[in-house]
Amino acid sequence: MKYFIETWGCQMNERDTETIAGLLEEMGYSPGKKDEADVIILNTCCVREKAEQKVYGEIGHLRHLKSKNPNLVIGICGCMAQQEEVAEKMRQRFPHIDLIFGTHNIHQLPRLLERARKFNEVQVEIWEREGEIIEHLPARRADKFKAYVSVTYGCNNFCTYCIVPYVRGRERSRLPEDILKEIKDLVEQGTVEVMLLGQNVNSYGKDLDKEIDFADLLQMVDEVKGLRRIRYMTSHPRDFTDKLIATIAASDHVCEHFHLPVQAGSNDVLQKMNRGYTREQYMELVEKIRRQVPGASITTDIIVGFPGETEEDFQDTLDLVKKVQFDAAFTFLYSPRKGTVAAKMPDQIPDEVKKERFQRLLELQNSISLASNKRLVGSTVEVLVEGKSKTNPHKLSGRTRTNKVVIFEGPEEIIGKFVPIKITEAKTWNLEGNVEHQGEGG
Ligand code: 5AD
Ligand code: SF4
To answer: Which residues hold [4Fe-4S] cluster 1 (predicted)?
Structure first.
Protein backbone atom coordinates (compact mmCIF):
# COMPACT_ATOMS: atom_id res chain seq x y z
CA MET A 1 0.00 0.00 0.00
CA LYS A 2 1.44 3.36 -1.05
CA TYR A 3 0.87 6.92 0.08
CA PHE A 4 1.55 10.30 -1.51
CA ILE A 5 1.41 13.66 0.30
CA GLU A 6 1.42 17.07 -1.34
CA THR A 7 2.26 20.04 0.88
CA TRP A 8 1.62 23.77 0.46
CA GLY A 9 2.68 26.65 2.66
CA CYS A 10 5.18 27.14 5.44
CA GLN A 11 7.63 25.01 7.39
CA MET A 12 4.99 24.18 10.02
CA ASN A 13 3.01 22.43 7.31
CA GLU A 14 6.12 20.63 6.10
CA ARG A 15 6.72 19.47 9.66
CA ASP A 16 3.10 18.28 9.94
CA THR A 17 3.56 16.35 6.71
CA GLU A 18 6.46 14.50 8.35
CA THR A 19 4.10 13.46 11.14
CA ILE A 20 1.39 12.40 8.69
CA ALA A 21 3.96 10.33 6.77
CA GLY A 22 5.15 8.81 10.06
CA LEU A 23 1.58 7.84 11.03
CA LEU A 24 0.93 6.30 7.61
CA GLU A 25 4.17 4.31 7.72
CA GLU A 26 3.22 2.96 11.15
CA MET A 27 0.01 1.75 9.51
CA GLY A 28 2.07 -0.15 6.94
CA TYR A 29 1.98 2.29 4.02
CA SER A 30 5.14 3.19 2.12
CA PRO A 31 5.88 6.30 0.05
CA GLY A 32 4.94 6.13 -3.62
CA LYS A 33 4.14 8.20 -6.69
CA LYS A 34 0.85 10.05 -6.99
CA ASP A 35 -0.60 7.88 -9.77
CA GLU A 36 0.13 4.61 -7.94
CA ALA A 37 -0.91 5.74 -4.44
CA ASP A 38 -3.65 4.13 -2.33
CA VAL A 39 -3.84 7.21 -0.12
CA ILE A 40 -3.29 10.80 -1.24
CA ILE A 41 -3.19 13.55 1.36
CA LEU A 42 -3.21 17.25 0.48
CA ASN A 43 -1.77 19.33 3.33
CA THR A 44 -3.12 22.79 2.54
CA CYS A 45 -2.32 26.45 3.23
CA CYS A 46 -4.77 29.37 3.42
CA VAL A 47 -2.45 32.31 4.05
CA ARG A 48 -3.20 33.81 0.62
CA GLU A 49 -5.92 33.19 -1.93
CA LYS A 50 -3.39 32.02 -4.51
CA ALA A 51 -2.40 29.07 -2.31
CA GLU A 52 -6.05 28.09 -1.96
CA GLN A 53 -6.67 28.25 -5.70
CA LYS A 54 -3.79 25.86 -6.31
CA VAL A 55 -5.27 23.40 -3.85
CA TYR A 56 -8.73 23.56 -5.48
CA GLY A 57 -7.07 22.96 -8.85
CA GLU A 58 -5.27 19.92 -7.50
CA ILE A 59 -8.39 18.45 -5.87
CA GLY A 60 -10.12 18.77 -9.25
CA HIS A 61 -7.26 16.90 -10.96
CA LEU A 62 -7.48 14.03 -8.52
CA ARG A 63 -10.97 13.18 -9.76
CA HIS A 64 -9.61 11.15 -12.66
CA LEU A 65 -7.28 9.13 -10.40
CA LYS A 66 -10.26 8.30 -8.22
CA SER A 67 -12.28 7.12 -11.20
CA LYS A 68 -9.38 4.85 -12.26
CA ASN A 69 -8.94 3.48 -8.75
CA PRO A 70 -12.15 3.60 -6.66
CA ASN A 71 -10.21 2.28 -3.64
CA LEU A 72 -8.04 5.39 -3.57
CA VAL A 73 -8.57 7.43 -0.38
CA ILE A 74 -8.20 11.19 -0.81
CA GLY A 75 -7.69 13.24 2.33
CA ILE A 76 -7.53 17.02 2.81
CA CYS A 77 -5.92 18.54 5.89
CA GLY A 78 -3.99 21.61 6.99
CA CYS A 79 -5.01 25.23 7.36
CA MET A 80 -7.71 25.32 4.66
CA ALA A 81 -9.42 22.26 6.08
CA GLN A 82 -9.32 23.76 9.58
CA GLN A 83 -11.87 26.42 8.51
CA GLU A 84 -15.24 24.79 8.87
CA GLU A 85 -16.98 26.67 6.07
CA VAL A 86 -14.15 25.78 3.68
CA ALA A 87 -14.34 22.13 4.71
CA GLU A 88 -18.08 22.17 4.09
CA LYS A 89 -17.63 23.77 0.67
CA MET A 90 -15.05 21.15 -0.30
CA ARG A 91 -17.32 18.36 0.81
CA GLN A 92 -20.16 19.61 -1.34
CA ARG A 93 -18.12 20.55 -4.38
CA PHE A 94 -15.84 17.50 -4.48
CA PRO A 95 -17.67 14.26 -3.66
CA HIS A 96 -14.48 12.31 -4.43
CA ILE A 97 -12.90 13.51 -1.17
CA ASP A 98 -12.93 10.78 1.50
CA LEU A 99 -11.38 12.50 4.48
CA ILE A 100 -11.18 16.02 5.88
CA PHE A 101 -9.34 16.83 9.10
CA GLY A 102 -7.90 19.98 10.65
CA THR A 103 -4.59 21.13 12.12
CA HIS A 104 -5.47 20.16 15.70
CA ASN A 105 -6.29 16.50 15.18
CA ILE A 106 -3.63 15.12 12.85
CA HIS A 107 -3.02 12.31 15.35
CA GLN A 108 -6.48 10.94 14.55
CA LEU A 109 -5.53 10.15 10.97
CA PRO A 110 -5.19 6.36 11.48
CA ARG A 111 -8.70 6.11 12.93
CA LEU A 112 -10.24 8.39 10.29
CA LEU A 113 -8.52 6.53 7.48
CA GLU A 114 -9.78 3.19 8.74
CA ARG A 115 -13.31 4.55 9.01
CA ALA A 116 -13.14 6.01 5.50
CA ARG A 117 -12.13 2.60 4.14
CA LYS A 118 -14.70 0.70 6.14
CA PHE A 119 -17.78 2.88 5.72
CA ASN A 120 -17.06 4.26 2.28
CA GLU A 121 -18.38 7.69 3.20
CA VAL A 122 -16.61 10.96 3.74
CA GLN A 123 -15.14 11.39 7.22
CA VAL A 124 -14.98 14.98 8.44
CA GLU A 125 -13.46 15.76 11.80
CA ILE A 126 -12.23 19.20 12.70
CA TRP A 127 -11.51 20.26 16.24
CA GLU A 128 -12.59 23.81 16.81
CA ARG A 129 -9.92 24.35 19.43
CA GLU A 130 -6.40 23.19 19.98
CA GLY A 131 -5.90 20.39 22.49
CA GLU A 132 -2.88 19.61 24.65
CA ILE A 133 0.39 19.22 22.74
CA ILE A 134 0.76 15.57 21.80
CA GLU A 135 4.33 14.34 22.11
CA HIS A 136 5.90 11.19 20.65
CA LEU A 137 4.00 11.05 17.39
CA PRO A 138 5.99 9.22 14.74
CA ALA A 139 7.70 11.25 12.01
CA ARG A 140 9.24 10.42 8.70
CA ARG A 141 11.82 13.18 8.33
CA ALA A 142 12.28 14.71 4.89
CA ASP A 143 16.05 15.03 5.37
CA LYS A 144 18.71 13.24 7.35
CA PHE A 145 21.16 16.07 7.92
CA LYS A 146 18.76 18.86 8.78
CA ALA A 147 15.53 18.69 10.70
CA TYR A 148 12.59 20.82 11.72
CA VAL A 149 11.87 20.85 15.44
CA SER A 150 8.68 22.55 16.62
CA VAL A 151 9.07 24.68 19.73
CA THR A 152 5.75 26.54 19.78
CA TYR A 153 2.42 26.03 18.10
CA GLY A 154 -0.17 28.69 17.29
CA CYS A 155 -0.05 32.47 17.44
CA ASN A 156 -1.57 35.10 19.72
CA ASN A 157 -0.59 38.17 17.74
CA PHE A 158 -3.59 38.67 15.51
CA CYS A 159 -1.90 40.81 12.90
CA THR A 160 -4.99 42.14 11.18
CA TYR A 161 -4.25 40.61 7.74
CA CYS A 162 -3.40 37.15 9.02
CA ILE A 163 -5.54 34.02 9.12
CA VAL A 164 -2.96 31.96 11.03
CA PRO A 165 -4.23 32.61 14.58
CA TYR A 166 -7.66 31.37 13.47
CA VAL A 167 -6.42 28.09 12.02
CA ARG A 168 -3.47 27.28 14.27
CA GLY A 169 -4.98 28.23 17.63
CA ARG A 170 -3.40 29.92 20.64
CA GLU A 171 0.28 29.92 21.45
CA ARG A 172 1.53 26.78 23.18
CA SER A 173 5.15 25.97 24.00
CA ARG A 174 6.65 22.51 24.13
CA LEU A 175 8.55 21.64 27.29
CA PRO A 176 12.30 22.27 26.98
CA GLU A 177 13.10 18.69 27.99
CA ASP A 178 10.93 17.32 25.15
CA ILE A 179 12.61 19.65 22.64
CA LEU A 180 16.12 18.78 23.82
CA LYS A 181 15.41 15.06 23.83
CA GLU A 182 14.13 15.27 20.24
CA ILE A 183 17.21 17.21 19.15
CA LYS A 184 19.65 14.85 20.89
CA ASP A 185 17.97 11.84 19.27
CA LEU A 186 18.16 13.54 15.87
CA VAL A 187 21.85 14.35 16.32
CA GLU A 188 22.52 10.74 17.24
CA GLN A 189 20.96 9.75 13.91
CA GLY A 190 23.14 12.15 11.94
CA THR A 191 21.37 15.51 12.02
CA VAL A 192 23.79 18.46 12.01
CA GLU A 193 21.35 21.35 11.53
CA VAL A 194 18.03 22.04 13.22
CA MET A 195 15.45 24.67 12.51
CA LEU A 196 13.37 25.54 15.55
CA LEU A 197 9.84 26.21 14.39
CA GLY A 198 6.99 28.33 15.62
CA GLN A 199 4.71 31.07 14.30
CA ASN A 200 6.42 33.40 16.73
CA VAL A 201 9.38 31.60 18.30
CA ASN A 202 10.42 34.48 20.50
CA SER A 203 7.32 34.25 22.61
CA TYR A 204 8.53 30.76 23.56
CA GLY A 205 7.95 29.91 27.23
CA LYS A 206 5.41 32.62 28.04
CA ASP A 207 2.73 29.98 28.64
CA LEU A 208 4.92 27.57 30.63
CA ASP A 209 5.07 27.34 34.43
CA LYS A 210 8.86 27.53 34.34
CA GLU A 211 10.87 30.73 33.99
CA ILE A 212 12.25 30.21 30.49
CA ASP A 213 12.34 32.27 27.31
CA PHE A 214 13.52 31.70 23.75
CA ALA A 215 17.04 32.96 24.51
CA ASP A 216 17.35 30.38 27.33
CA LEU A 217 16.11 27.66 25.00
CA LEU A 218 18.61 28.65 22.28
CA GLN A 219 21.42 28.51 24.79
CA MET A 220 20.40 25.00 25.85
CA VAL A 221 20.20 23.83 22.25
CA ASP A 222 23.57 25.44 21.54
CA GLU A 223 25.12 23.09 24.08
CA VAL A 224 23.92 19.89 22.38
CA LYS A 225 27.09 18.09 21.33
CA GLY A 226 27.43 17.25 17.66
CA LEU A 227 24.94 19.87 16.46
CA ARG A 228 26.60 22.33 14.07
CA ARG A 229 23.89 24.78 13.03
CA ILE A 230 20.79 26.17 14.69
CA ARG A 231 18.17 28.18 12.81
CA TYR A 232 14.74 29.39 13.90
CA MET A 233 11.60 30.58 12.13
CA THR A 234 9.76 32.93 12.51
CA SER A 235 10.66 35.66 14.94
CA HIS A 236 8.61 38.79 15.54
CA PRO A 237 10.56 42.08 15.53
CA ARG A 238 8.52 43.34 18.47
CA ASP A 239 9.71 40.56 20.78
CA PHE A 240 13.35 40.47 19.67
CA THR A 241 14.98 41.32 23.00
CA ASP A 242 18.52 42.53 23.69
CA LYS A 243 19.01 39.33 25.66
CA LEU A 244 18.15 37.30 22.55
CA ILE A 245 20.63 39.22 20.39
CA ALA A 246 23.36 38.83 23.03
CA THR A 247 22.63 35.09 23.33
CA ILE A 248 22.86 34.62 19.58
CA ALA A 249 26.05 36.68 19.40
CA ALA A 250 27.66 34.57 22.14
CA SER A 251 26.50 31.21 20.82
CA ASP A 252 28.64 28.83 18.78
CA HIS A 253 26.03 27.32 16.53
CA VAL A 254 23.12 29.73 16.10
CA CYS A 255 23.44 30.91 12.49
CA GLU A 256 24.03 34.56 11.63
CA HIS A 257 20.75 34.81 9.79
CA PHE A 258 17.84 36.91 11.00
CA HIS A 259 14.51 36.55 9.28
CA LEU A 260 12.59 39.55 10.58
CA PRO A 261 9.30 40.13 8.77
CA VAL A 262 8.79 43.90 8.62
CA GLN A 263 5.57 43.70 6.53
CA ALA A 264 5.47 47.47 5.80
CA GLY A 265 7.61 50.59 6.08
CA SER A 266 4.89 53.09 6.97
CA ASN A 267 4.01 53.66 10.61
CA ASP A 268 0.38 54.19 9.69
CA VAL A 269 0.17 50.84 7.93
CA LEU A 270 2.16 49.07 10.66
CA GLN A 271 -0.33 50.31 13.18
CA LYS A 272 -3.31 49.18 11.11
CA MET A 273 -1.60 45.81 10.79
CA ASN A 274 -1.30 45.62 14.59
CA ARG A 275 2.41 44.83 14.36
CA GLY A 276 3.39 46.55 17.60
CA TYR A 277 6.50 48.42 16.35
CA THR A 278 7.35 51.51 14.34
CA ARG A 279 9.69 51.76 11.36
CA GLU A 280 12.16 53.57 13.61
CA GLN A 281 12.13 50.75 16.17
CA TYR A 282 12.56 48.18 13.42
CA MET A 283 15.56 49.98 11.95
CA GLU A 284 17.09 50.35 15.38
CA LEU A 285 16.75 46.59 15.90
CA VAL A 286 18.54 45.96 12.61
CA GLU A 287 21.32 48.34 13.68
CA LYS A 288 21.74 46.52 16.99
CA ILE A 289 21.92 43.15 15.26
CA ARG A 290 24.48 44.36 12.73
CA ARG A 291 26.62 45.84 15.52
CA GLN A 292 26.58 42.73 17.67
CA VAL A 293 26.57 39.97 15.05
CA PRO A 294 29.09 40.90 12.36
CA GLY A 295 28.34 39.44 8.94
CA ALA A 296 24.71 38.77 9.84
CA SER A 297 22.30 38.41 6.95
CA ILE A 298 18.87 39.94 7.37
CA THR A 299 15.83 38.87 5.38
CA THR A 300 12.20 39.91 5.59
CA ASP A 301 8.60 39.53 4.45
CA ILE A 302 6.73 42.50 2.99
CA ILE A 303 3.05 42.86 2.12
CA VAL A 304 2.12 45.30 -0.65
CA GLY A 305 -1.33 46.88 -0.96
CA PHE A 306 -2.64 46.57 2.58
CA PRO A 307 -6.05 48.36 2.87
CA GLY A 308 -5.62 52.13 2.92
CA GLU A 309 -1.97 52.00 1.75
CA THR A 310 -1.32 55.30 -0.04
CA GLU A 311 1.45 55.99 -2.53
CA GLU A 312 3.17 57.84 0.30
CA ASP A 313 2.91 54.82 2.61
CA PHE A 314 4.35 52.68 -0.15
CA GLN A 315 7.21 55.15 -0.62
CA ASP A 316 7.96 54.63 3.08
CA THR A 317 8.28 50.91 2.42
CA LEU A 318 10.66 51.52 -0.51
CA ASP A 319 12.63 53.91 1.67
CA LEU A 320 12.94 51.40 4.51
CA VAL A 321 14.03 48.70 2.06
CA LYS A 322 16.74 51.03 0.71
CA LYS A 323 17.91 51.94 4.19
CA VAL A 324 17.98 48.45 5.67
CA GLN A 325 19.52 46.72 2.61
CA PHE A 326 17.94 43.30 3.18
CA ASP A 327 19.85 40.29 1.87
CA ALA A 328 16.54 38.99 0.54
CA ALA A 329 12.84 39.75 0.89
CA PHE A 330 9.73 37.69 0.30
CA THR A 331 7.18 40.07 -1.13
CA PHE A 332 3.44 39.41 -1.23
CA LEU A 333 0.36 41.05 -2.67
CA TYR A 334 -2.09 41.65 0.16
CA SER A 335 -4.80 39.00 0.00
CA PRO A 336 -8.00 39.61 2.01
CA ARG A 337 -8.73 36.62 4.24
CA LYS A 338 -12.31 36.10 5.37
CA GLY A 339 -12.65 36.41 9.14
CA THR A 340 -9.66 38.74 9.62
CA VAL A 341 -10.02 42.39 10.67
CA ALA A 342 -8.26 43.80 7.59
CA ALA A 343 -10.63 42.05 5.17
CA LYS A 344 -13.40 44.34 6.45
CA MET A 345 -11.34 47.56 6.36
CA PRO A 346 -12.37 50.29 3.92
CA ASP A 347 -10.11 51.39 1.03
CA GLN A 348 -9.14 47.98 -0.28
CA ILE A 349 -6.47 48.61 -2.91
CA PRO A 350 -7.33 47.73 -6.55
CA ASP A 351 -5.39 44.82 -8.01
CA GLU A 352 -3.65 46.89 -10.69
CA VAL A 353 -2.28 49.29 -8.08
CA LYS A 354 -1.08 46.41 -5.89
CA LYS A 355 0.63 44.73 -8.83
CA GLU A 356 2.31 47.90 -10.00
CA ARG A 357 3.67 48.62 -6.52
CA PHE A 358 4.74 45.01 -6.14
CA GLN A 359 6.77 45.26 -9.35
CA ARG A 360 8.57 48.40 -8.19
CA LEU A 361 9.39 46.82 -4.84
CA LEU A 362 10.62 43.63 -6.51
CA GLU A 363 12.94 45.53 -8.84
CA LEU A 364 14.41 47.51 -5.97
CA GLN A 365 14.90 44.46 -3.76
CA ASN A 366 16.37 42.38 -6.59
CA SER A 367 19.10 44.95 -7.13
CA ILE A 368 19.82 45.04 -3.39
CA SER A 369 19.88 41.21 -3.14
CA LEU A 370 22.30 41.04 -6.05
CA ALA A 371 24.58 43.68 -4.52
CA SER A 372 24.56 41.81 -1.20
CA ASN A 373 25.49 38.55 -2.95
CA LYS A 374 28.20 40.25 -4.99
CA ARG A 375 29.98 41.29 -1.82
CA LEU A 376 30.73 37.60 -1.21
CA VAL A 377 32.48 36.99 -4.54
CA GLY A 378 36.08 36.00 -3.88
CA SER A 379 35.45 34.90 -0.29
CA THR A 380 35.32 31.34 1.01
CA VAL A 381 32.22 30.28 2.91
CA GLU A 382 31.19 27.17 4.87
CA VAL A 383 28.43 25.35 3.04
CA LEU A 384 26.30 22.44 4.25
CA VAL A 385 25.73 20.40 1.08
CA GLU A 386 22.01 19.66 0.83
CA GLY A 387 21.67 17.72 -2.42
CA LYS A 388 21.45 18.08 -6.16
CA SER A 389 20.64 21.57 -7.37
CA LYS A 390 17.01 21.94 -8.43
CA THR A 391 17.92 24.31 -11.24
CA ASN A 392 20.93 22.33 -12.50
CA PRO A 393 20.86 18.59 -11.66
CA HIS A 394 24.52 18.23 -12.67
CA LYS A 395 25.51 20.46 -9.78
CA LEU A 396 25.11 20.36 -6.03
CA SER A 397 23.43 22.91 -3.84
CA GLY A 398 23.90 23.91 -0.22
CA ARG A 399 23.54 26.83 2.16
CA THR A 400 25.85 29.18 3.99
CA ARG A 401 25.30 29.90 7.67
CA THR A 402 23.68 33.15 6.49
CA ASN A 403 21.14 31.02 4.57
CA LYS A 404 22.34 31.87 1.07
CA VAL A 405 22.01 29.13 -1.53
CA VAL A 406 25.30 28.17 -3.20
CA ILE A 407 25.53 26.04 -6.36
CA PHE A 408 28.75 24.21 -7.25
CA GLU A 409 30.18 21.08 -8.82
CA GLY A 410 31.09 18.11 -6.65
CA PRO A 411 30.63 14.40 -6.02
CA GLU A 412 27.38 13.17 -4.45
CA GLU A 413 29.35 11.69 -1.54
CA ILE A 414 29.68 15.15 -0.02
CA ILE A 415 25.92 15.56 0.41
CA GLY A 416 25.33 16.12 4.13
CA LYS A 417 28.89 17.37 4.69
CA PHE A 418 30.28 20.81 5.41
CA VAL A 419 32.61 22.04 2.69
CA PRO A 420 34.48 25.31 2.10
CA ILE A 421 33.33 26.94 -1.13
CA LYS A 422 35.06 29.78 -2.88
CA ILE A 423 32.41 32.07 -4.34
CA THR A 424 32.97 32.89 -8.00
CA GLU A 425 29.68 34.40 -9.12
CA ALA A 426 26.68 36.17 -7.62
CA LYS A 427 23.09 35.98 -8.89
CA THR A 428 19.98 37.60 -7.43
CA TRP A 429 18.76 34.45 -5.70
CA ASN A 430 21.94 32.42 -5.25
CA LEU A 431 25.71 32.20 -5.41
CA GLU A 432 27.98 29.99 -7.49
CA GLY A 433 31.37 28.69 -6.52
CA ASN A 434 33.92 25.87 -6.35
CA VAL A 435 34.87 23.47 -3.61
CA GLU A 436 38.11 24.71 -2.10
CA HIS A 437 40.36 21.74 -1.49
CA GLN A 438 42.37 21.85 1.68
CA GLY A 439 45.97 22.83 1.11
CA GLU A 440 45.09 24.48 -2.16
CA GLY A 441 45.33 28.23 -2.44
CA GLY A 442 44.52 30.55 0.47
N1 5AD B 1 -1.90 38.63 2.38
C2 5AD B 1 -0.63 38.67 1.91
N3 5AD B 1 0.42 38.20 2.59
C4 5AD B 1 0.19 37.65 3.80
N5 5AD B 1 1.03 37.11 4.72
C6 5AD B 1 0.30 36.69 5.77
N7 5AD B 1 -0.99 36.97 5.57
C8 5AD B 1 -1.09 37.57 4.35
C9 5AD B 1 -2.16 38.09 3.59
N10 5AD B 1 -3.42 38.07 4.04
C11 5AD B 1 2.49 37.05 4.54
C12 5AD B 1 3.22 37.80 5.64
C13 5AD B 1 3.83 36.69 6.44
C14 5AD B 1 4.08 35.65 5.37
C15 5AD B 1 4.30 34.28 5.87
O16 5AD B 1 2.91 35.72 4.59
O17 5AD B 1 4.22 38.60 5.04
O18 5AD B 1 5.02 37.08 7.10
FE1 SF4 C 1 0.23 35.87 11.35
FE2 SF4 C 1 1.26 37.93 12.73
FE3 SF4 C 1 1.00 35.49 13.91
FE4 SF4 C 1 2.84 35.86 11.98
S5 SF4 C 1 2.80 36.88 13.98
S6 SF4 C 1 1.40 34.11 12.18
S7 SF4 C 1 1.82 37.31 10.62
S8 SF4 C 1 -0.67 36.80 13.21
So the answer is: 10, 45, 79
